[in-house]
Amino acid sequence: MHIAVVGAGSLGSLLGGLLAREHDVTLVGRDPHVDRVDADGLRVTGVESFRVSPAARTDIPDSADLALVAVKSYDTGSVAAQLADCDLDACLSVQNGMGNEERLADALACPVLAGTCTYGARLEAPGTVAFTGRGEVVLGPREGGRSAVADRVGEAVATAGVETTVATDMPTRLWEKLAVNAAVNATTALARVENGALAAGAGGSLAADAARETARVARERGVDLADERAVSLTREVVRDTAANRSSMLQDVAAGRRTEIDAINGYVVRAAAQAVPVNETLTRLVRTWAAGTDAA
Ligand code: PAF
């Protein structure tokens, strides 16, 4: 299968590297990392160590069987516009935050699948990505239910040795992932701690409060997500990724723009009632951004 992995950040590079062991992968990005991959191949180190040679380029190819979108949520609109000219059979978003699939589906003629990914990755140097934790890719039709396209894409991803589940309840899965990201990302970014610092204590209870608020907003929107489930999922991810720096902490540490608007900011916008924890986390991250060039 020809897979265009759009977004050569840490997650896109790791998934691109894993998929390239089995498929014809084109990694699309715009940083020196992509030039290096194009010249010397991609080195994956950590949980598994290997080198692969995917094609790497800065523009979207004319066609692909699958576009796997791994860009930051604030870039989804521009990527959707570029993908509109690409001849695709399917598109899969594995991005953080909410609303990405809708933006892609508005622009594309092919089926757009929703996905979540809990693999841990960190860009070490141009051409090198650290594989910091094995996780799972969960994917399926964005409106829920089954589809032949989702089954085919799930099989292709699984064939490359990536832990994969094809799910029939993606709307709930996306809210579950949002609850975890709302609990973990801003909290770890603001406190400058690894995910494991949220296992207990003040950080743990702040994260649990953010997860509970997110679950309440999910229920307001008709998604069956209990507070206890949102909190226990958050605890699981904190335990399984204890030594990882969340993507938002990596962004803040590098002085880059964050995905706050698609995570805690989304919860605030979607809420019918007050969500003070998510609101405060959003305002604090925006305060940080306003004091830097990262806004
Ligand atoms: O954004 C992230 O960092 C990840 O989605 C997660 C699951 C919170 C683990 O760090």
UniProtKB/TrEMBL annotation:
Its EC number is 1.1.1.169. It catalyses: (R)-pantoate + NADP(+) = 2-dehydropantoate + NADPH + H(+); (R)-pantoate + NAD(+) = 2-dehydropantoate + NADH + H(+). InterPro entries: 6-PGluconate_DH-like_C_sf, 6PGD_dom2, ApbA, Ketopantoate_reductase, KPA_reductase, KPR_N, NAD(P)-bd_dom_sf. Keywords: Coenzyme A biosynthesis, NADP, Oxidoreductase. Pathway: Cofactor biosynthesis; coenzyme A biosynthesis. Residues 3-143 form the Ketopantoate reductase N-terminal domain. Gene3D superfamilies: N-(1-d-carboxylethyl)-l-norvaline Dehydrogenase, domain 2 (1.10.1040.10), NAD(P)-binding Rossmann-like Domain (3.40.50.720). The keyword Oxidoreductase applies. The keyword Nucleotide-binding does not apply. It comes from the Archaea. GO terms for molecular function: 2-dehydropantoate 2-reductase activity. Residues 172-287 form the Ketopantoate reductase C-terminal domain. It is an enzyme of class 1 (oxidoreductase). Catalyzes the NADPH-dependent reduction of ketopantoate into pantoic acid. Belongs to the ketopantoate reductase family. PANTHER family: 2-DEHYDROPANTOATE 2-REDUCTASE, 2-DEHYDROPANTOATE 2-REDUCTASE-RELATED. This is 2-dehydropantoate 2-reductase. The lineage of its organism: Archaea, Methanobacteriati, Methanobacteriota, Stenosarchaea group, Halobacteria.
